[in-house]
Amino acid sequence: MTRIISGFAGSLRLAVPPAGTRPTSDRVREAMFSALDARGVLPGARVLDLYAGSGALGLEAASRGAAHVTLVDKATAAHRVTNDNAARIRKAAPRGVTLEIVVSSQPVQSFLGGGRDSRGGAKWDVVFLDPPYDLGGPELVHNLEALVPRLSPDAVVVVERSARDPEPAWPVGLELDRRKDYGETAVYYLSPTASAHELQVASQADA
To answer: How much is the pTM?
Structure first.
């Protein structure tokens, strides 16, 4: 079990898939969200949690004020657990709070390659990528390349990797703000560059 750290669902326990996932520790999640809270990006945000596992990162964002959260993980066990956890968060939401949580069982690259979503191409404000540590660097870069055209101008992308791995080669359209290490875990905070807008325009023209 893991738990929501803060917000309206603070201390609510979440189930984790029985195997095949590596949940982010409470310590690392708390540090991540302290950084995001300092930027003031969560209230009303559209949040995307890729390789979601239990959904703890996206659901933590929901508890702290995000308006929309999409959780993506192709594993059957993760999909079932994440649906249950999302239901717990919806039930805990205070009356009058507008909160939308969507759970997708698509592979990450398929989801990102799907073009505009059902809301007319609305962009993501906060994105979490916490893939398995054995996910290859090229595949991670492909994920990020597909993500760039779908980011809002002031978006924050949070990538979690093994601290032992070399820093990924960030694609055109994203730049590193900072890296923080927590034991065996490295957390990278990325932002769209000026060229990201050009990629968004090109993507819309092709749609």
So the answer is: 0.90
